[in-house]
Queue: 2 jobs
Job 1
Amino acid sequence: MAGPPERIVLGLERMRAAMALLGLPARLPMPVITVAGTNGKGSTVACLETFYRQAGYQVAAYTSPHIWSFNERLRLNGIPAPTADWDTALDDIAAVAGTVALTFFEIATLAAVKILCAAQVDLVILEVGLGGRLDAVNAFDPDCSVLTTVDLDHQDWLGPDRLSIGREKSGIFRPNVPALYGDAANPCASVLEAAAQNQVLLQLLGRDFDFDAQARRWWGFGQVLAMPEPLWPAAAQWQNLALALAAVWFLQKKLPVSDAALSHWSIRPDLPGRAQILRPWGENGPRLIVDVAHNPQAVAQLATLLEGQGGRCHAVVAMLADKDVAGTLKNLLRRVEVWHVLEITDTPRAASAVSLQQCLWEMGAAHVKIGENMQTVTQALSSVLTADDSIVCFGSFHLVKQLPRQWLDGASV
């Protein structure tokens, strides 16, 4: 029905044509929150999803990419949509696929929207796949837009610099619709300009709303709220949590949520593969730190997490060739003692293990080994490292999915 998932063709013309044939409106019958950004989308979506579930609402969350199963891309009340629902929706889309040449992501997005409409949920949270302005998700109109951060990633599609990327991501904004932006320390000028030019009700973290992590307080728009702990203790996670709380505030008239449902987690947000600290080999084995981080900004945040861990640190890494490989890896050079580079085998976009090794050598890394596969490398390391040591696995969703699912479903420490 479509080309491979790696085929990226931006634009909304195909989506709008298919939506007309399928009878899907741009304005869905329930409130929609659209979330874009270079980093932080997943945790912001997870917090939003959990807040509304705790308040008793039926919530659909559409995210990408998946780690293990395609069904993960749409969660209905925290549970992946059933295969039978996907099959029914995809059968409907197959009928129009001969008329409109849809991409893999466009088909997935259309199918997800058909499923959540049939489920008659109370709220839809849509995570942008790539960029914003021309992403398939942007064919649907939001009641609130969230832009987490703007930084360098996907330059081949979004432009060579932060200003270009900011213009593309702010394409999710709509005139007179609330939009929240999270780059408090260094807001991107093109995002601010786009909001001003298009009469967007832009609300900026640090200016219009803010938080105090130590006191666990959020404030904005004349209100002060108690905050729960973020998914993990990092500055970026407090920022994502603050964005989620601001979005809830703007939808209060449509979907009221009590202060009690916002102040603590009665349902723990679930976000496998993001800054997880695990002990799969028991208390005497090394820590396994897992993160899908694959761009400079995300790995800089991962480096901050690693600074709080003692002992030796070995890294297991694989990346896509179209990423800023050197800019990403350099953020961990001072912390990692030994590098184990792997090659992703399920996509033609993979960087070769040899190229990763060469890149690390050129940046001064002394110990860089090419590993056979994830199982071999992690098993060998688990037998020589101690409980004080860490194995950090990062660089791509494609790499993280090679870990046993039961590990990432386990409790973090």
Job 2
Amino acid sequence: MTSEKTSGERTGRSLASSFERYLQDKGKGRGGDGGNYRRNAARELERFAEWAAGDRGRDDWTGIVPDDVDREPTFEDLDERVFREYARHLAGDRRLKQNTVQTYYRYISAWCGWCVNEGYLEAHYAQRASAMAPLPEDDGRKPGDQQAWTSEQRHTLTRHVDERARDAVEAYTTLPEDTDPLDKQRARYAALKAARDRALVFVLAYTAVRVGELLRDPNDPRRRGVRWEDLSLEDGSMDVYRKKQQWDAASLPDPVISPLRSYRKLMEPPTERWPVFPTFDQRTLAELVQEELAERGERPEAIAERREEYTRDLLLALDEDIQPPSITTDGARSILQRLSQEAEVDIDHPKHDYLAPHGGRRGMGEVLVRAFGYTVAARYLDNSEEMVRERYSHIEAGELGDVATEALNEIDSQAELSTDE
């Protein structure tokens, strides 16, 4: 009796009353309040609730509640016909791309499945064939169509950042002893920035680590960016917080070790907790330095005088051990846009006119699959072999095509010999 009453109370609730609990269960971070999934799912759930209430959609759309009833939509109003209509709304009214329609519908479908488990709904209506029928077919975009750095692109970019860093470091380390202190600071700052960019490019190019595992994600408090304490250059490993929500060791192959070691020597981080790839954004660092020195008891006049002794606040932060944040994943994209343009990398891709961070990972995946097969590639990429086979299926298709071509050539050759005889 109690169970039936509880179930009835839940099915009579408004749709929005379940959102926060669902997002906490599916979110990331302390209290489930972080992560890109939570943010994106929350946005689409709110749109779904507005559509269900008649506040979104066609001009003649009045929502899922009967016209003669004045209340918010509840779970009692949901059935497969509602989700079928919402699929039509996504595919038609909102004029979304095919893959975007699929993505947005998955957010609603995942919530629907959770509602079944929690007793809000009797069945997973969103997954029924009739509900999903209006969804567009896959747009045909294959994994091989997504950007993957080619060997030539990787070589062009890494050679550019390597030469740039070598020149900047040499310019700094060969300064005469009587060089003006501020000029020496400018040279050090230029060397640090070039060395950081080189290390970042080499890590993205050769480790196949996801950029979200390497740098700071403002939407997930656990992803604060790798720190020096996470690296073991002697062992060739790096601890990262994986996509599967746990810490794991990633490999640092030989090409990455030297740029990281040179960069660390130049930076001399005050503590091991410093980020490997700190932001160089002047506005961020200026605010950080002033706030930290004020908290340490420095007066505004003294802080201003202290800052005037440095050409850049990053150098003051290093001397005073004021730990800056890591660059963000968006910051990495901006850096790669700048470096791709400087290096004049030849890029022909419909979506990106620069070498995007994820392309480095996919490029390494291509190399590993071709050289060692799917099993080894899956281990290095921290993915299941099944997923790697799916994402790099174009490689196997190409190899099978070569086999077919060879077989046809063999058959044709035998046919020609038979005819000659």
